[in-house]
Amino acid sequence: MGGEFIMRRTILHVDLNNYYASVECLYRPEIRDKPVIVCGDAEARHGIILAKNYIAKNLGVKTGEAIWEAKQKCPSLVLVRADFQKYLRFSRLAREIYADYSDKIEPYGIDEGWIDVTGTEQIFGTGQDIANQIRQRLRDELGLTGSVGVSWNKIFAKLGSDLKKPDATTVITADNFHEKVWPLPVGELLYVGRSIKRKLQNRAIYTIGDLAKRDISDLKLLLGVWGETLWHFANGFDAATVRLTGESSIIKSIGNSTTTPRDLVNNQDVKLIIYVLAESVAARLRKHGFKCKTVSISVRGNDLMSFERQGKLSDPTFLSNDIANKAMELFKANYRWDNPIRSLGVRGSDLVTADTHVQLDLFDNSNLDAEILAGTVDMLHKRFGHYSVQRCAMLLDRHLTGFNPEQDHIIHPISYFK
Amino acid sequence: MNSKVFVEVTAKHDIYGNVRPLTIKWEDGRVFEVDRLIDVRQAASLKGGGVGIRYTCNIMGKQVYLYDDEGKWFMERK
Question: What pLDDT does residue A1 have?
Fold first, then answer.
C-alpha cells in the first residue's frame, strides 16, 4: 500500500450520545434524573422506543422494544413523544459547529457524521484537539454530549466514536490500532450485519483482528466482493473520502416505508400498502425528473425480523403500476406468511433521468399514455390535495391506506458507498 | 418551580442584523433596563432547559443571562 508516502488523513466521527433523549432532557430539566424514553405514536402502532437516556439504559431498556416491554422493566419510566423538528434543528446546529473546522462534513443519519480536518493542524491543533474543542462546544452551545473517534480513515473513526461513551475522544492511530481495534468483535465493524457475522463465525473469525489476518482470497471466496472490502476495512486501508458539504444531496434512490396501523395478514393487505407506497415513490420520481431501473422491497414481520429483496425492471419507469407490480412480484416470490407483517417499504433505485432516450416497443406503447396520465394526476394532487384522486382499491380499507407517505419524516443513514 | 421564565423584550435590530435587547419585562410586570451587554453567543441553558442565542446582560448591577430561542425569549429564575 505504500502508506508512508500517502499523507495521513485526519478524520473525525462525531456521534451525539442518546441523541433524541438528550435533546428532550435538555428541554425538561425536571426529568433529567429519571429514566426517560423517546417513542413514536403508540396509537398508530409506531410506539416503539426510539431512544433512551443512560438511566433507562442501565435498567435494561433497549431501543426498538415496545413500550409495554420497557414498562415491565421499569414502571417509573418517563415517556416523551418524539419531536423530529427539534432533532433536525439540533442536528443543523451541530453541523454549524463542525463547519467551523472543515468544509468536508458528511452526515451519517441525524446524529452522526464524519469531518475531515486534514491539514488544519496549524490552525486548530491535532485531531484530538479539534475533537475536544468540538465536544466542549457541543456541551456549551447545545447542551449535548458527543463521542468522537479520531483516525486516518472513516471506518476506524466510526469505531473509535463507539468505544468510549459518553462525552469522550478516542484516537486510533497506525501505532495503536492493533491493540484498540483488532480485539473487538467482528460485528462492530461497519457493514458486518447478522448474516455476514454468522458466515464469518463459521470460519472462526470472531474479532476484527481475525478478519484482518485472514487471506484476502479466502474472504473473497466466502463473501465475494464484500470479503475484499471488509478485509480492507479491518486493516485500515479504507480510502473513502469524506464528502464535501452539500455533495451528499445527489439522489441515489427514492423510497418510502411505513409501519401499518394493524398487522398485514394476506396478499390483499400487502397489495394495498404497496400501492400507497408505490404511488408516493412514483410521484417523487416524477417530481425529481427520474425513472428507476430497479425496485426493492423491505419487509418486517411482527417478530421484527426484516429482509430486503430487489429486482430489475425491463424498462426504466416512473409509473406506480410498474413499480407496484414489480414490488408485488418480489413479495410473492419471497414471503411465505410465517408471520403477519408489521412494516413494508418500497424503493426505486438505479435512477436515470426521465428524459433519457428509450427503446420503444414495436407494438405496445401504452406506457406513453400512462405517463401523460400520471402527470395529470400529479397536477390534480397539487391543485386539489392528496386525496382528491385515488386508486379505487384504497377505499377497500381506509384505515389501512389513510396515510400520505410523502409527508412522513424519513430519517435514516444513507449508504456508505455512493 | 419551573426555572424557565419567558419574558417580553424590547430590542433594537440594526440594519446589519445585530440585535440588542433594551428592556425586559419580568413575570410580575416590572420592566428592567439592560444597562450593559457583556457577551453574545450561542449557548445551552441547562438550568432553564433550552438553547438559543445567549445575551449576557448587566441589569441593576447583576449579571444575568437572556436567551433568544428562535424568537421566544426566556431567562433563568435564580
Answer: 43
Mean pLDDT for all residues in chain A: 85
The complex's ipTM works out to 0.87
Sign of the Cα pseudo-torsion (A206, A208, A209, A211, in order):
positive
Q: What does the alpha-carbon distance between residue A197 and residue A211 come to, in Å, rounded to a whole number?
A: 11
pLDDT digits (tens, 9 = 90+) for A72-107: 888 888 989 888 889 889 999 999 999 999 989 988
Q: Are A97 and A134 in contact (CB under 8 A)?
A: yes
Distance from CA of A96 to the nearest CA of B (A): 11
Nearest by CB to A29, from B41, B42, B49: name it: B49
| Confidence band for A417, pLDDT divided at 50, 70 and 90 | low
Q: How far apart are CA A307 and CA A300, in angstroms?
A: 7
Tell whether the model's pLDDT for residue B31 goes beyond 90: yes
Supply the DSSP string of B11-76, one letter for each residue.
EEE-TTS-EEEEEEE-TTS-EEE--EEEEEEEEEETTTTEEEEEEEEEETTEEEEEEEETTEEEEE
pTM for the whole thing? 0.73
Residue with cell 431567562: B75
Q: Give pLDDT, residue A42.
A: 66
**A2: pLDDT strictly greater than 50:** no
d(CA A253, CA A214): 34
A338, three cell numbers? 410465517
A365-378 pLDDT, tens digit each: 777 788 888 889 88
Confidence band, pLDDT 50/70/90 cuts, at residue A6? low
Residue in A24, A65, A112, A279 annotated catalytic:
A112
Q: Is A86 helix (H, G, I), strand (E, B) or coil?
A: helix
Contact A27 B41 (CB under 8 A): no
**CB-CB neighbours of A254 under 10 Å:** 21
Q: How far is B38 from chain A (nearest CA, A)?
A: 17
Residue B42 DSSP SS3: strand
Amino acid at the residue B39: D
Q: How far apart are CA A23 and CA A87, in angstroms?
A: 7
Other CB atoms closer than 10 Å to residue A22's CB: what's the count? 26
Interface of A with B in 360-399 (CB under 8 A): none
Distance of CA A65 to the CA centre of its chain: 18
The dihedral through the CA atoms of A208, A213, A219, A222 has a sign that is negative
Using alpha carbons only, how large is chain A's radius of gyration in Å? 24
Beta-strand ranges (E) seen in A104-249 are: 105-107, 112-116, 146-151, 169-171
Which cell is A362 given? 414495436
CB A185, CB A193: distance < 8 Å = no
Name the E strands within A152-305: 169-171, 253-264, 290-301
Summarize pLDDT for A248-305 with one digit per residue, the tens.
456 778 888 888 888 888 888 899 899 989 988 998 888 888 889 999 999 988 887 8
How far is A257 from A44, CA to CA, in rounded Å?
14
